[in-house]
Design brief:
The chain contains 10 helices and 2 strands; from the N terminus they run H-H-H-H-H-H-H-H-E-E-H-H. It is mainly alpha-helical.
């Protein structure tokens, strides 16, 4: 039987991740992965594979929530499907490879890698780097290579890829609306392939949580999906009423604190 406190924790994670995704445009993986690591450890649910299960479960939730977001952007004509097709092959190969490699990394080092990513994200949000003159998009080979790198890193760390793809596209003259929409479609491809990779990498591993398929822990994934999707809509509405610039700075400081805790722990 599932621990009621764990279910409450998973539900709360979905509420917070969905709200912040809609409010600040930040992918839920930055919240879901450290939250799951904390829940697994505090309630002593997991074991040696806590970071792997957190990352894999985060990717599984992004498949559902990211699909809704990508469809919404598509309806508004904000997804550049030509650009997505060029990036896509690299994203798929990179995400699968990143997940398979991530499945072999020692748990403590996977946690530290994620902490460094959070630290980078927090500092970047806090400093808000100034806009520079756009550079031209690379050719098809360059885009496919960039997609491979984005896919590998995003899948390995359990994030959708928006924090990497959006700055890359916007720095190359793609309008922010189209950069965000295209990145949302890229995130679905990364998450779906990465989830599959972590299922393969975790198949028949000892000491996984009950009800896991590979490294993906489905009770947490389903609870987060059910709560995060409606809360993302609420967060998007709040974005038009609250001072998002200040909220982003507060969120950045929170990410830096969480990253520090994960590095120390």
């Amino acid at each position: 039987m599932l621990d009621p406190l764990a279910l409450i924790g998973f539900a709360a994670t979905g509420v917070v991740a969905g709200t912040l995704a809609g409010l600040l445009g930040v992918g839920g993986g930055a919240i879901i992965v450290p939250a799951l690591i904390g829940i697994f450890g505090h309630l002593q649910l997991g074991g040696a594979w806590d970071p792997h299960q957190a990352v894999a479960t985060s990717l599984a939730t992004i498949v559902a929530t990211g699909s809704v977001s990508a469809y919404s952007h598509h309806r508004r004509g904000a997804v550049d499907w030509r650009l997505f097709r060029i990036l896509g092959l690299g994203l798929l190969f990179g995400a699968l490879g990143g997940a398979l490699v991530g499945g072999e990394i020692a748990p403590l080092w996977l946690q530290r890698l994620f902490a460094l990513f959070l630290l980078y994200t927090g500092v970047r949000l806090l400093l808000q780097p100034r806009v520079t003159r756009p550079r031209p998009l690379p050719g098809a080979a360059g885009l496919a290579g960039a997609g491979t790198g984005f896919g590998a890193l995003s899948a390995m760390l359990g994030v959708g890829g928006g924090l990497l793809v959006v700055p890359f596209l916007s720095r190359r003259g793609i309008m922010m609306r189209s950069a965000v929409g295209t990145a949302s479609a890229c995130g679905v491809a990364i998450a779906a392939t990465g989830s599959l990779g972590f299922v393969i990498a975790g198949w028949n591993r000892p000491d996984l949580l009950p009800h896991s398929i590979g490294f993906v822990y489905w009770p947490a994934a389903l609870a987060i999906i059910v709560l995060s999707m409606p809360m993302a809509n609420l967060g998007a509405r709040l974005a038009h009423r609250l001072p998002t610039a200040m909220l982003k700075r507060i969120f950045a400081l929170l990410l830096i604190l969480v990253a520090t805790g994960l590095l120390i722990g």
